[in-house]
Amino acid sequence: SGQAYTILPSQSFIRDLASQVTALISSYSTIASNAGAGKFGDGIISAPGICFTEDTDTGIRRTASGTFALVSNGADVLSVAPAGVSITGTASISGILTSNSGSIIANNSTDGQSSYILFRNAGFAKFNIQRDGSNNLKFNHNESGSSTVFTLSTTGAAVTGTLSATGDITGSSGIIWATKSGTPQLNLTNSSGTTK
Question: Once rounded to an integer, what is the mean pLDDT over residues 75-80?
Answer without folding.
Answer: 94
